[in-house]
Amino acid sequence: MNNHMEAEAAPRDVPSAFKKILRSVSWTAVHSIIYFGVLIPLIMLWYKVMGNHAQYGEWFNNNGIVMIVVNDIIQITLFYGFIRIAKKENLFKRCNFVRIEPTKIYLIIALSLAAAVFTHTLFALPYLKSNFGGYESVMAFLVDTPSGWSFLLFLLIGSFYKEIFFRGLLFNELRRGLYLPVCYLLLCVIYTYYFELMRDVPLMLYAAVGTCLFTTLYLWTRSMYSAVIMQVLSTGGIYVLRHNAMIEQYHNGYHNTLLVFTFSIIIFCLFKLRALCQTPSAYEHEDFKKYAKQ
């Protein structure tokens, strides 16, 4: 009897499509306000105040990547407390940090390393390198100039933070009220805008493709660890390649062969991952059902 009454009452408890959209947009806006509310004051403090310090100013001006690490630590802590208070939930469970099967991990590793080589080879092509400097300027700041320890902190902490913020918070909020293709599109726009990557077309497309790829891995595997692993290995792979002067020394023929080879590996890994994620053993985790329903 009670079950019958609850079933009849359920439709009246379901919010309208407009309310769902409004809720998704509102929570996305709230998370974005927190994001900029920390980042902008920190940038001003780092460069405008500490950057002008007589004794330590030069260090602060030359170690902007450390500021990014500080920002990531502050924001992870802040979002953890905010989600705990506002939604009475654990941030890491909400983001679906759950175990992945070993076979999928091996494929993600191969995919990540292939993506690193493909990206580095692609942007080493003379035409892109000479006509579109956006990628080079970003890599110079994030990969080329930092010390080893500061880059390692950025790689590990930053990879977790980016996935928590863009996939775990923003994407999961958007997909509660919007169609999945719209969520992909909005997340690409948000990512490129928030990180100021709209300087040239190749850089913008690179960021958009990466956003779609990480999001797809998250959806397929139903675990945030898949996207984090790819962030760490692909970015770390680019670091190793750039610091060992690899790829640039090759002839254009090798460039083209390497591009085709690594692209083939990427496609193969994606097809295999998709097949594994569709098998009967690939059930949705309870947290994923609760926080990120398809």
Automatic annotation (TrEMBL):
<dbReference type="Pfam" id="PF02517">
    <property type="entry name" value="Rce1-like"/>
</dbReference>
<dbReference type="InterPro" id="IPR003675">
    <property type="entry name" value="Rce1/LyrA-like_dom"/>
</dbReference>
<feature type="transmembrane region" description="Helical">
    <location>
        <begin position="225"/>
        <end position="241"/>
    </location>
</feature>
<protein>
    <recommendedName>
        <fullName>CAAX prenyl protease 2/Lysostaphin resistance protein A-like domain-containing protein</fullName>
    </recommendedName>
</protein>
<feature type="transmembrane region" description="Helical">
    <location>
        <begin position="21"/>
        <end position="44"/>
    </location>
</feature>
<feature type="transmembrane region" description="Helical">
    <location>
        <begin position="64"/>
        <end position="85"/>
    </location>
</feature>
<feature type="transmembrane region" description="Helical">
    <location>
        <begin position="105"/>
        <end position="128"/>
    </location>
</feature>
<feature type="transmembrane region" description="Helical">
    <location>
        <begin position="253"/>
        <end position="271"/>
    </location>
</feature>
<feature type="transmembrane region" description="Helical">
    <location>
        <begin position="148"/>
        <end position="166"/>
    </location>
</feature>
<dbReference type="GO" id="GO:0080120">
    <property type="term" value="P:CAAX-box protein maturation"/>
</dbReference>
<dbReference type="GO" id="GO:0004175">
    <property type="term" value="F:endopeptidase activity"/>
</dbReference>
<feature type="domain" description="CAAX prenyl protease 2/Lysostaphin resistance protein A-like">
    <location>
        <begin position="149"/>
        <end position="233"/>
    </location>
</feature>
<keyword id="KW-0472">Membrane</keyword>
<keyword id="KW-0812">Transmembrane</keyword>
<feature type="transmembrane region" description="Helical">
    <location>
        <begin position="178"/>
        <end position="195"/>
    </location>
</feature>
<keyword id="KW-1133">Transmembrane helix</keyword>
